[in-house]
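Here is a typical sample entry:
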Amino acid sequence: MTVVSSTKNLEALSFTLVTEFDADVKRVWQVWEDPRLLERWWGPPTWPATFEQFDFQRGGKAAYYMTGPDGTKARGWWRITAIQAPNQLEFDDGFADGNGDHVEAMGITHATVTLEEVGDRTRMTVLSTFESEEQMNQMVEMGMEEGMKEAAGQIDALLAEHSNP
């Protein structure tokens, strides 16, 4: 994986991560649509994800938790707002409490994932937009940028493992 860019835009209340992979768009799309593959990279290596619910369709919901090195569980959810397979996925992303309910104080982040062919590679752009400057700063302080880079860094191994013969 090559990180092409990582950009915070306070004015637009956004964070954009652009990466490229040595695989075609359909193979990269699989790491989003298959929850067993998704949970192998969603979250940094020290905070692996487990998806308990995954309804991959517009209006569908996903529920997951990430387990930290000390056993702490951080819960989250997605509400899928758009799917244009295999090139675009949009979802709202939020934190959840122990019952799986939205933690209002953390707000909602909207993610737009775009996959496009660039020669024989795939460029993946993940645009995260925030509700407020305060929310964006809070997420940056929590290590979102580094965490997203580490998480995306796990995708290459999955692509190599699940390559087409």
